[in-house]
Amino acid sequence: xxxxxxxxxxxxxxxxxxxxxxxxxxxxxxxxxxxxxxxxxxxxxxxxxxxxxxxxxxxxxxxxxxxxxxxxxxxxxxxxxxxxxxxxxxxxxxxxxxxxxxxxxxxxxxxxxxxxxxxxxxxxxxxxxxxxxxxxxxxxxxxxxxxxxxxxxxxxxxxxxxxxxxxxxxxxxxxxxxxxxxxxxxxxxxxxxxxxxxxxxxxxxxxxxxxxxxxxxx
Length: 218
Ligand code: SF4
Prior knowledge:
mainly alpha, 0% strand, globular
């Protein structure tokens, strides 16, 4: 159920009458607490109109929709990441994501998640099953299935770098690109799925190393 829908005083109509979150109190639906958002997202996992709910939000709600609760099965952080993906020209195929997040695909997708593959790497694996899919679609499917879907390259065996060091070493180009598109630190951290502290430490390291005056503003 979208923010707009929740604020409406008239009874739900159309696809909203099938929303699994009907009856959930507004304080829970609008919560900005990660634990509460995770609980609502788990309700969305069984919602028959999840695709329509997210599609509706992406079509008709502006940036404000990112501030509140869970929409279409995505937490605030995930929607911020999806906005960054859109700025990069990456838009998920919602129907494909629903298919990949389904129980039918669970046995194929779960091992890939357990191996810590990135959405890009998972997309390559999925194509071996004759399904052409984009990385952002895989990322959405992972979120819908309850996974993290981070994009910072995973550590190889013997790699003892901290997360901020991985960001520093592996993510500078994409951070600068998004920063050039006007993305702030909070959304950058959401896109990478790291803490703002980790992002900030990486930015500080870049500044020190290259004398950059302002890579990412607070
Ligand atoms: S997907 Fe989630 S937020 Fe949207 S209608 Fe269903 S239960 Fe509600």
